[in-house]
C-alpha cells in the first residue's frame, strides 16, 4: 500500500532519521524450505513447488547489501522439473515498507484467504486454493523489500543506499537477476506485478532492468501512483484526483448519483474534474465569488458535502475531512484504501491527523488474517522456520526515512518530487514489444485513478506505444483483490494480458 504522505515520523528523525529502523542487521537467515503442492480449480490442476528462501543482494564490488526474502511458486512436471517456457512474474506490494503478503495471500497467490464483501475477515480464517491465482498464467516470485517481512539488511550497509526510490529499485533488480541465475530462467518471458508504491518500483525497474540487459515481456501496475507532485501540500492535482473518488464514495453511501450506473457516474465525475473543477482551481482567488459558488453547487451534487463547507475550503477538500464528514451523521468514518469500508468514528480526543490517516477499516478488515495465513503456510506446509516477528508493514521505520530523490531519465538534476511516468515512457520507447496493464479502482483514495490517467496522458506516447497499454477500472478499492467480483474480472483481464503478443 501507499501510506499517508502527510503522516509525520513517529521517532526523532532530526536526531537520527533511521532511529529504531529495526530491520535485522545480521546476514543470518533461516534455511530455505520447500514443498511440492497441487493447485486445483474446477477445470484445471497445476503441480508446483513452493519455496521460501533468501536472495543475496550484492553490489558491483561484490559487497553484500542484504538478503531479500522470496516465496516462489513454480509449476513443475511429474519429475519436479520447471518449464522454462512458462513466464516468471516478480510480484510485490509497496508502502514503502510493506511486505508482499497482501498481494500473495490476499489475491494473486495459489492460496488465498476468502473475503466477505466489506465485512471484517475472521483472524483465524484459513487460506484455500485461489481460483484466480496468477499461477494459472505464470510462475510467481513474491519478494519482500529489504527492511520488510523477513528480508534483512547486511551489517555495514548504509540504509540510505536502500531506503529510497533509486536504491530500492537497484536492490530489486539485483535480487531478480539472482533468482533468474539461481533457477536458470533467463530464457523465460519476464513480468513485473507491482501494487501501490510497487508501481513506482515497477516504473523504475522497467527502465533499469532494460539498461542491464534484462528485457521484460510485460508489466502490471495495480493501484498506481506515478507523479509524486500530487501528494505535496497544497497541490491542486491532489484535489483533482480525489474528486471522482469522493463522488464514487458518496454514491456508494446513497448520498449522490441515485439511479446512475456507478461507472457512468465515475465518468461524469472525471469529466467534471477536467472541464469544470480544474479551471476553477487554477484561477485561485481570481475565480470570483459568484463563479466559485456555481462550481461549489455542482461539486456538492457530486460529493454531497454542503456548499458553504466547500466554499469555506475554496473547493479544496482534504481526504481526512471527507472521510470524517461523509458518514458523520451515522457516527462513522469511511476507509482510505477502500472507501466502501467504514468503522465507528474516532474519539474526540484523537485529533492527530497522522492517527486519523492511519486508522483505516479497509486495512483492519483483512491484513491480520493474511499475515496469519502466510505464517501458517510457511511453518506448517513448507517447514520454514523464520524469526518470530514478521514485519508485514514497517512503514514507520522504513517509509518515514525514505529518500524521494530520483534521477529522472533525460534530466540533469534529481527530482525530490519524482514523476516515474517518465521512466515508463523511456522503457516503452526502448522496448516497444513490452506490454503494460494499468489496473485501478473507483473507491481507492490512496492512489486515485484520475491522476494515473493524467500522468500517462502527459507522456505523449505514439499511437503504437499507447496500443501496448491496456486500462482496467474496477468497482473496488486499493487492494482490488479484496473484492471477489473484481478478483474474477482481474483474472479474466490478466489471462488476456498474458496471452497478448
Characteristics:
501 residues; alpha/beta; Rossmann fold; 10-stranded mixed sheet; two-stranded antiparallel sheet; 35% helix; globular; disordered N terminus; AB_hydrolase_fold; serine-type carboxypeptidase activity; Peptidase_S10; Peptidase S10
Question: Assembly state here?
Answer: single chain
Number of strands: 14
The CATH superfamily of the domain at 33-229 and 366-499 appears as: Alpha/Beta hydrolase fold, catalytic domain
Q: Output the number of helix runs.
A: 15
Radius of gyration (CA) equals 22 Å
CATH fold description of the domain at 33-229 and 366-499: Rossmann fold
The secondary-structure class comes to: alpha/beta
Protein name: Peptidase S10
GO biological process, one term: proteolysis
Region (Disordered): 1-30
GO molecular function: serine-type carboxypeptidase activity
Can you characterise this structure?
It comes from Thermophilibacter immobilis. One of its GO terms (molecular function) is serine-type carboxypeptidase activity. Residues 1-30 are annotated as: Disordered. This is Peptidase S10. With 501 residues, this protein is of the alpha/beta class. The protein has a domain at 33-229 and 366-499: Rossmann fold (3-Layer(aba) Sandwich), CATH 3.40.50.1820. Helix content is 35%, strand content 16%. The longest helix has 22 residues, at 262-283. The protein is globular, with a radius of gyration of 22 Å. It starts with 32 loop residues before the first strand and ends with a helix. The relative contact order is 0.16.
Amino acid at each position: 500500500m501507499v501510506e499517508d504522505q502527510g503522516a509525520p515520523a513517529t521517532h526523532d528523525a532530526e536526531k537520527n532519521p533511521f532511529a529504531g529502523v529495526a530491520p535485522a542487521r545480521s546476514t543470518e537467515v533461516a534455511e530455505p524450505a520447500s514443498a511440492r503442492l497441487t493447485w486445483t480449480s474446477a477445470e484445471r490442476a497445476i503441480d508446483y513447488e513452493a519455496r521460501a528462501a533468501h536472495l543475496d543482494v550484492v553490489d558491483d564490488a561484490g559487497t553484500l547489501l542484504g538478503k531479500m526474502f522470496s516465496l516462489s511458486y513454480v509449476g513443475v512436471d511429474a519429475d519436479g522439473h520447471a518449464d522454462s517456457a512458462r513466464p516468471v512474474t516478480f510480484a510485490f506490494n509497496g508502502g514503502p515498507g510493506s511486505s508482499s503478503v497482501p498481494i500473495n495471500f490476499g489475491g494473486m497467490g495459489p492460496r488465498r484467504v476468502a473475503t466477505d464483501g466489506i465485512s471484517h475477515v475472521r483472524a483465524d480464517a484459513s487460506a484455500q486454493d485461489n481460483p484466480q491465482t496468477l499461477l494459472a498464467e505464470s510462475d510467481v516470485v513474491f519478494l519482500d523489500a529489504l527492511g520488510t517481512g523477513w528480508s534483512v539488511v547486511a551489517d555495514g550497509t548504509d540504509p540510505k543506499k536502500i531506503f529510497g526510490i533509486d536504491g530500492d529499485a537497484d536492490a530489486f533488480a539485483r535480487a531478480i537477476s539472482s533468482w533468474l541465475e539461481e533457477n536458470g530462467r533467463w530464457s523465460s518471458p519476464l513480468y513485473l506485478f507491482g501494487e501501490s508504491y510497487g508501481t513506482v518500483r515497477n516504473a523504475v525497474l522497467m527502465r533499469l532492468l532494460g539498461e542491464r540487459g534484462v528485457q521484460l515481456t510485460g508489466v502490471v501496475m495495480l493501484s498506481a501512483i506515478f507523479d509524486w507532485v500530487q501528494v505535496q501540500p497544497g497541490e491542486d492535482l491532489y484535489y483533482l484526483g480525489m474528486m471522482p473518488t469522493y463522488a464514487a464514495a458518496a454514491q456508494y453511501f446513497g448520498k449522490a448519483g441515485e439511479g446512475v450506473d456507478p461507472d457512468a457516474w465515475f465518468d461524469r465525475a472525471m469529466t467534471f474534474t477536467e472541464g469544470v473543477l480544474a479551471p476553477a482551481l487554477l484561477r485561485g482567488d481570481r475565480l470570483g465569488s459568484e463563479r466559485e459558488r456555481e462550481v461549489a453547487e455542482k461539486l456538492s451534487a457530486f460529493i454531497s458535502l454542503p456548499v458553504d463547507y466547500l466554499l469555506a475550503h475554496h473547493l479544496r477538500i482534504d481526504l481526512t475531512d471527507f472521510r470524517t464528514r461523509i458518514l458523520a451523521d451515522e457516527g462513522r468514518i469511511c476507509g482510505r484504501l477502500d472507501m466502501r469500508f467504514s468503522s465507528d468514528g474516532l474519539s474526540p480526543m484523537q485529533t492527530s491527523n497522522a492517527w486519523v490517516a492511519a486508522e483505516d477499516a479497509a486495512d483492519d478488515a483483512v491484513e491480520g488474517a493474511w499475515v496469519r495465513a502466510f505464517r501458517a503456510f510457511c511453518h506448517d506446509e513448507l517447514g520454514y522456520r523464520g524469526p518470530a516477528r514478521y514485519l508485514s508493514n514497517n512503514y514507520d521505520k522504513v517509509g518515514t526515512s525514505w529518500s524521494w530523490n530520483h534521477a529522472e531519465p533525460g534530466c540533469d538534476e534529481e527530482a525530490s518530487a519524482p514523476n516515474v511516468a517518465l521512466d515508463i515512457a523511456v522503457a516503452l520507447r526502448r522496448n516497444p514489444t513490452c506490454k503494460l496493464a494499468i489496473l485501478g479502482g473507483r473507491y481507492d483514495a490512496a492512489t486515485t485513478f484520475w491522476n494515473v490517467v493524467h500522468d500517462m496522458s502527459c507522456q505523449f506516447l505514439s499511437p503504437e506505444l499507447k496500443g501496448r497499454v491496456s486500462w482496467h477500472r474496477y468497482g473496488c478499492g486499493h487492494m482490488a483483490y479484496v473484492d471477489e467480483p473484481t478478483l474474477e474480472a482481474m483474472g479474466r483481464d490478466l489471462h488476456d494480458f498474458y496471452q497478448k503478443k
